[in-house]
Amino acid sequence: MTPQKVLIVGAGVAGPALAYWLTRHGFRTTVVERASDLRSSGNPIDVKGPAVPVAERMGLMPKLRGLATRATAITLLHPDGRAFARTALPTGDAAGVELARSDLSSALYETARDDAEFVFGDSVTRMHQDPDGVEVTFGRSAPRRFDLVVGADGMHSTTRRLVFGPETEFATDLGMYVATVPLPPEAVDLPHDMVLHNTPGRLLAIHPGRDNPLALFVFRGPSADGYDRHDTDRQKRLLTEAYAGVGWRAPELVERFRTHPAPFFDALNRVRMASWSRGRVALLGDAASSVALFGDGSSLAVAGAYTLAQALAEHPGDHARAFAAYETRHRRETDPRQRRIPPIIAALIPRTGRGVAARNCTAGAALRLSRRRLTPLAAVG
Ligand SMILES: Cc1cc2nc3c(=O)[nH]c(=O)nc-3n(C[C@H](O)[C@H](O)[C@H](O)COP(=O)(O)OP(=O)(O)OC[C@H]3O[C@@H](n4cnc5c(N)ncnc54)[C@H](O)[C@@H]3O)c2cc1C
How close is the Cα of 352 to the center of ligand 1, in Å? Predict the structure, then answer.
């Protein structure tokens, strides 16, 4: 039988993982990535839970552990900047590994690059399905025909827009924004700690990275209606206004964000769809089911890629059954995490001063309690 030709849109996390598994199952795979190379934000992401056995089967875990960030603890600060609790981050196989998104993306790409075709600096502009295949038009390359297409092109998926409809139909605005900006090593006081500072509606954190520390801002803001995610000046104004009057190191970190030429900034959405496939086109990763930064998005991208490839291999020539099997199995991982987003947000970014105080009180008490149980923990401040 002629191998089926699959186009994967996006070489972030889900895309190269799927390319690896599909080529192992005998598919001919092409990955098209809009960016000209794999350089991307150093935002820290995890490979944990259902992604660990998949990465192990790919022989990747030792490499990923070697790329882990230095963060081994979390320190919590009062609004006035005083540290009140410190706890070790979980370790061991179940805890997985935290690393920069760019490192994970590159490591996955390395596993797939020899057997799949990668096209950088291009994007899809049109997809037309007929009973036998999908005719795909690109921004730069000549049109090509594929048996199947998988959109692994992230939260703002073009594949989803072209085949399923506009983003507004599937994305719920969480009323929050996330931003990061790189920091020089000397800006980090605690080289192994993720330091979290809360004021009402705002989280400000310093993450040590591996050798690329960054400041992370997550804040409740005005509705993202009409928000243009390419308007950097407006993003800088939004963030500056949101953190005005915040103490601790906010003025200095906001200034770094304001003066950086291309900091990372996005509105936070939750993507939910009634179905992840339409005909010969399926969605994977954040494109299908984004949990923003609150629920193992990168781990779900890796695990989902494995499940989708497995389902396609189990149902040769029957993409409809394969896509249905993938969706049934993988929703068992994504749906519970989507439901957990509201309580996670409430705990991570309390809306009011009273909420921050109550959360700090509960967190401090929980940490003291777990210290009595001899978990690796130390209270500070
Ligand atoms: C600040 C921040 C912190 C996070 N922290 C965590 C964390 O701690 N743990 C966790 O599990 N997750 C975290 N996440 C979420 C995680 O990054 C995503 O869930 C994960 O990257 C999703 O992988 P993906 O492959 O689906 O999409 P992405 O990683 O977004 O990759 C999509 C790829 O598609 C490409 N692309 C987009 N449009 C097109 C197009 N039209 N044509 C071709 N290519 C295109 C993009 O350039 C990109 O390379 C965080 C996210 C952010 C923003």
Answer: 30
Contact 172, 225 (CB under 8 A): no
Q: Are 122 and 139 a contacting pair, CB within 8 Å?
A: yes
Using most ligand atoms within 8 A of CB, pick from 286, 302, 307, 348 the residue to mutate for ligand 1: 286
Which atom of ligand 1 lies at the shortest distance from residue 32's CA?
A: 43
Tell whether pTM > 0.85: yes
The CATH classification of domain 5-69+95-169+270-339, taken from the options 1.20.1600.10, 3.40.1010.10, 3.50.50.60, 3.30.470.10: 3.50.50.60
What is the number of the ligand 1 atom nearest to the C-alpha of 216?
1
Distance, CA 275 to ligand 1 centroid (Å)? 20
Residues 6+ apart with CB under 8 A from 112: 16, 17, 19, 20, 23, 29, 31, 118
Name the fold adopted by 174-268+347-378. D-Amino Acid Oxidase; Chain A, domain 2 (3.30.9)
Question: pLDDT (tens digit, 0 to 9) for every residue of the chain, 381 residues total?
Answer: 677 999 999 999 999 999 999 999 999 999 999 999 887 777 899 999 999 999 999 999 999 999 999 999 989 999 999 998 888 887 777 779 999 999 999 999 999 999 999 999 999 999 999 999 999 999 999 999 999 999 999 999 999 999 999 999 999 888 899 999 999 999 999 999 999 999 999 999 999 999 889 999 999 987 766 678 889 999 999 999 999 999 999 999 999 999 999 999 999 889 999 999 999 999 999 999 987 777 789 999 999 999 999 999 999 999 999 999 999 999 999 999 988 888 888 888 999 999 998 888 887 777 665 554 333 333 333
Question: How far is 265 from 229, CA to CA, in rounded Å?
Answer: 8
Residue nearest to atom 20 of ligand 1 (CA): 298
